[in-house]
Amino acid sequence: MPIAGLYERYWRGSHVVVPQWPHLSLSVSMSTRLAWRNLAHDRTRLLVAIVGISFAVQLMAVQLSLLFGFAQTASGLIDHSGADLWIAGRGTKNVDQADEIPARRRFEAMEVPGVRSADKYIVHFAISRRPDGGSEFVILVGFDVMDRVGGPWNLIAGSVEDLKRPGGIIVDRLYMQRLGITHIGQVIEINRQRVRVVGITGGIRTFAQSPYIFTSFETARKIGGISPDATKYVLVTLNPGADRSMVSEALARKMPGVDVFTGTEFASATRFYWLFSTGAGLDLILAAFLGVVIGVVITAQTLYAGAMDHLPEYATLRAMGTSDRYLATVIVKQALFNAASGYAVGAVVASVVVWFGGQGVAAMWLPWQLVVGLGIVTTLMCVLSGLTAIRRILKAEPTSAFR
Which residues of 51-82 are buried (b: 16+ CB within 10 A; e: fewer)? Predict the structure, then answer.
């Protein structure tokens, strides 16, 4: 009997079906069919493999989205400020903590060619008193209400114009319950001074978990106890076509004793500080790293175990004359089937989890680049696991299946 006929006779009714093909020269489509039937025969094991891979994808996606989300949150005030350059006290490492600088730096900045506007800006910690007697740390953000550089974004209620009245503040809805705020117009105390809620934003988080309280520069200065002749920052916007680096160098030469950052530089410095210089940031990085490692291990172990369960069948095919290249093709295709199915399920579930998580205080961000990257990692891990299994299969004696 020809070997192809032996294939048909031996495997008919089994979970591995190899159709007749002259001289064992099986086509790519037949290897795909064989790979799928190997997987589909044991539906339970296939489901377990898909669930395992999808769980790994979810774990990696959620942990990395937390890391990316908090990194984005750390520099959110800078990213949404609209300022081209930040003038800060020497040695400033992050936007939430800065020493006072003379307010005259604003007028000195305006003398530099290329500068369109320069605004005083305050970011300062304070204590808010809740109606029930408790207290919470908050971060006052004082800005020029007329220019609105460095002001709030995602306003969902109220108006920035209302901050022109002394004592007006804007808070984010995510922190209203923590601060004991229930509605616009409510009066609360910050640093023992009465302020009134005139607006609400949606989704402005802070890495330090102390809510941003947006207000006018003068209100923030008075509440924070900052000297009338001082500010925390000067935010500079440039004329169209002005060279940012040249203006930055000119400002630094004109004002010794200060640091001049571009928005990108200051955002990077702030993210680096919170992620690498604090315990909270290092915990996030470690959790994300462990999530990726565990996800990779789960994926690799799931696929390797599945391939090993079919070792006798593959040994039989080798004994019947199937080429090693053909077997490798089948195993790699099985790995790709598993990778595609597990990744699709995991990515959908992770997106839902990140979306719901993003509705709360926890910062979660899943950019499309991360989604694509996880797909590439999942595919590589599945293929590498398949290749590892191939080495084991090719080392097995073909006659071992008949023992």
Answer: ebbbbbbbbbbbbbbbbbbbbbbbbbbbbebe
Half-sphere exposure at residue 346, Cβ-oriented, CA atoms within 13 angstroms: 28
Q: Are strands 233-238 and 85-89 parallel, antiparallel or unpaired?
A: antiparallel
Domain residues of the chain, as ranges?
A: 3-72+280-402, 91-256
pLDDT(223) > 90: yes
When mean pLDDT is compared across 241-255, 290-304, 329-343, the lowest value belongs to 290-304
- Cβ-contact 347, 371 below 8 angstroms: yes
More confident residue, 250 or 395: 250
Q: Tell me the pLDDT band of 10, cut-offs 50, 70 and 90.
A: very low
Q: What distance in Å separates the CA atoms of residue 118 and residue 114, rounded to the nearest whole number? A: 11
Query: According to the model, what pLDDT value does residue 6 have?
Result: 35
Tell me the residue type at 245: S
Query: Do 54 and 249 touch, CB atoms closer than 8 A?
Result: no
Q: SS3 string of 163-179?
A: HHCCCEEEEEHHHHHHH
Give the other-Cβ count within 10 Å of 157's Cβ: 14
